[in-house]
Amino acid sequence: MRRAHVATAAALLGVIVSVSSLAQAAKPEDTAATRAQGQALFERACLFCHGVTGQGDGPAGWFLGRYASPRPQNFTVGSFKLRSTPSGDLPTDQDLFRTITKGIPGYMPGFASLPETARWQVVAYVKSFYPGFRTETPVPLSLVGAPTHQLAESLDRGRALYTSFECHTCHGIEGQGDGPVAQAGELKDAFGLSIPTANLTRPSSFKNGASLLDLVRTLLTGLDGTPMPSYAARLSDRETDAWDLAQYIRALSAESVP
Amino acid sequence: MLVIALFIALMVSNVPAALAEMEQGYGTVNVHVLYRGTVPPPTEMKVTRDPETCGATISLQSLTVHSPSDGLKDAVVMIEGIHSSGKEQTRTQPMVLSNSKCSFSPHVIPLQTGSTLEIQNLDQIMHNTHITHEIRTFINVAMVANGRPVAKKVANPGLYRVQCDVHKFMEGYVLASGHPYFGVTDERGSAKILDVPAGEHDISVWHERLGQLQTHVTVPPNGEATATFEFHEDGTGHSRRINR
Fold this sequence. Notes:
The complex is a heterodimer. By secondary structure, chain A is mostly helical. In chain A, 47% of the residues lie in helices and 0% in strands.
């Protein structure tokens, strides 16, 4: 059983590595010409939500409701929710590419239909909105390890961690996004707007992906600009715990995840 | 030969600057920060989470004023408009921010950019240290009981706000300076900035509730200058300066 888990994880990582390699192969150099091509695409596909200056204030935002949240990403601030990097750090190019490709369930469409080179051009243009991308070098957290416990044992451990990490205060005991802090309306984003808690029984709505690897990444990185913290301080040297908690979160729903 | 001549020429051209620097010297700035007026009563808040550690109620007071001197604690003083020459002694030792008894200790931390901020949790409950620099997240990290400290280098100057998303009444500040010429006032409202290059300088004070004041000091070589800031109850303030 343990060998099967390791084999699955190795295959999964292999797929990820090969997908990244394919994507990297089409990545153009970040030049003025690349950014100009990215800008042309941005103005056709992204501007309506993210705005001309990338501040998340595009005209479509008005249809979402002026004070509805979360607002479209403001690229000029330097806080990004969906990353593989430590809390507070900028996302890697690969992170931005992944978000553009897969989209955000319920909020942003995926653009997998665009050629890879075009998506990289958009990545280059999006980065130009925040000067920190020129001076900082984001480094992804290492997501090594894999589930090592049998599922039943993993779930027991994950359940205990769910309690000790106080996940229930926001996400609720059953994971339905109805914890006391969420019900009290105390959860706000960096702009002071109220935001909903993820309903963990609906993994297809998870913004940062719902695979085990996605969940482990989210637990380690947190979602910057929201109250969801990084648990890296507790999990980075106990990766088994991260996988156990991810298994438990997945088990909160019978919904199948691709 | 040409290279040697060029080298000598460069050395000679740098001599006046080096001499000027030696003659310039360094001095000390003594700062006193006062609050004139009635100190408002603290805000009492009922604690809804972890009362066994935080207490049933918490008393929030953002003005700590010494009696009878009126000295104001936790005001950050800083030389303005001075740039790091790269030659002065840096103050980049690690600074520790503790979650302790449901408050951040120290409440205000001034540091030089390049310093490491180490966050630790001394309580037997979970805290969530969430630090923002303007709107950008600096770090948002769950600090479980008995967990490891978390360290992160502070690269950018400016004001950082420290909060705990679990206990909303917890608040603190980090002020990052691009140079080593800063300090924070003690219980009597005093701070001392050492080894300031002699000459004319602007100096400012910042307090989380009272805002900012600025004045000008002349730092004599191997001497001392004194700046006194006064915040007033009505929101105004003024400053005095003495050079010795």
